[in-house]
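pasting Nitroreductase domain-containing protein for the record, 261 residues
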Amino acid sequence: NPNINLLARAMNKLDLIVVTDLFLTDTARMADIILPATSMFEYYDLITGYGHSYIQLQQKLIEPPDECKHESEMYRLLGKKFGFNLNYLPENDLSTIEKIIINSNLNTNVDELKEKIERCLEAARLAPSASNSQPWRFIVADNPKLKEEVAKETFSQLISFNRFSLQAPVLIVLISERPGLLNKVAESIKDKQFSLIDIGIAAEHFCLQAAEEGLGTCMLGWFNEKGVKKLLNIPPSKRVELVITVGYPESTIIRPKKRKP
Ligand SMILES: Cc1cc2nc3c(=O)[nH]c(=O)nc-3n(C[C@H](O)[C@H](O)[C@H](O)COP(=O)(O)O)c2cc1C
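structre below
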């Protein structure tokens, strides 16, 4: 129940009023400039709702009439005039929607992905190791709830570079086993931690097979080990060495690599 008269008086004091709307509303009548908006029939969008987990495709049926523009288009054009680059604002077209669907894993074929992961695990299982000790355990976190909880252990508000792990449909948690007696002696004599070398090789076997399967991976060494152990009931005596994100890459183009000569 706003005090309309007070609001109108306050608005009349403004030097400039710009309104974007579909209709000539009372507020629009007060505007110096009206930017005509587009109706829901004039742009693509994804519609979500409360109380259910469905999304709906809103389809563009007609071109916007005359100078009507979607709000994001207005911002992009205004940005250009003011010298800002607002091109990152997504366009409400089908290619944006496709991108959102690809990134959200909504199109992931769960059975196909499981088979691919099985082959990645097999490649890792066949990795060589010092004295053939195979000092690894691979935990596949593909249950959406558990996976999300594990992903949340790889970043925080402050250090958030691993936030992308939330998007991965599968996380692999790599645990190292304690070396057996033979390896313990060898490690002590040679002053080397063979199990870490072994884990690295097995992880890379996994990732190379994943690439072969058309999957993308990222090894994460930065995560809250205690938190991951608690979620997966891993005994405190074991170490979690790596978390590997697995998913479908947005693009098959390999960006230039920064490497030493
Ligand atoms: C042991 C290890 C730990 C890593 N930890 C992380 C990590 O926590 N977060 C991340 O985004 N990338 C991580 N990476 C990926 C590296 O940052 C990445 O491979 C490196 O920057 C080179 O990038 P490129 O492989 O995409 O060319 C890790 C890689 C390895 C091998």
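The radius of gyration is 27 Å.
The pocket of flavin mononucleotide is lined by residues 161-162, 218-222, 257 (CB under 6 Å).
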